[in-house]
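Lecture 7, part 2: worked example. A protein chain together with S-adenosyl-L-homocysteine.
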Amino acid sequence: MDIPRIFNITESAHRIHNPITPDKLAALGAALRLEAGARVLDLGSGSGEMLCTWARDHRVSGIGVDMSRLFSEQAKRRAEELGVAHQIEFIHGDAAGYVADEKVDVAACVGATWIAGGVAGTIELLARSLRTGGIILIGEPCWRRLPPTEDVARGCLANSIADFLVLPELLALFGRLGYDVVEMVLADQDGWDRYEAAKWLTMRRWLDANPGDELAKEVRAQLSSEPGRYAAYTREYLGWGVFALMPR
Ligand code: SAH
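Predicted complex, written out as structure tokens:
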């Protein structure tokens, strides 16, 4: 079981697989007023940076589930490096339908809401692991500027404009789903650069080391086109944020 190999190649050097930066991840952890011993569930935990740094900084414990074998291994190594391996368990597996045995204080899905068919389904899934009074975290794109045409939306690698909402509409959606938005940390263009531009050097080095690989042509094409595509579309039109929610 694994995610498509192309992501394991292009994001192999990322600690955070999203446009949120280490300082914003720390700001989010502080904003949530986490207490020592709080339990956090993270579905689509990637390389584990959120759980590991929050375990170090706020002494939380928890579980991360991720389908990438590489990212899950990196997460375990990161936990050891930060001295929090006894607090955090990383499970390599499919997070679709994953419900924690013991209710958690924070149930998160940061940038992987497709695991339960979108924002609404993912909130429903996370709610099944959440204790009364707990907080759900959703990391999700929203339009920074509404694309003027469907072509522009596709330039952002969306299927259509309807894939994402503008920020006020996304916040209103959380309300319609029965949740108070109690905090948020938004990404900015510099954060997007850290996520997207970091792939380019990784791709270049991978190409130099793996010229005969079956994916070399695809990676070469991406490396040639991605900086221009990203600058013209994603960087201008797409926003992103992590939203903290409590059921009303
Ligand atoms: N939350 C992490 C990772 C976000 S990237 C961070 O912010 O750094 C999306 C993650 O979802 C990737 O790590 C990918 O491996 C994982 N993923 C994709 N499909 C999944 C699934 N069905 N179950 C669990 N993880 C999945």
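Residues 61 and 87 are 5 Å apart (CA to CA). Residues 189-209 form the longest helix (21 residues). Keep this in mind for problem set question 3.
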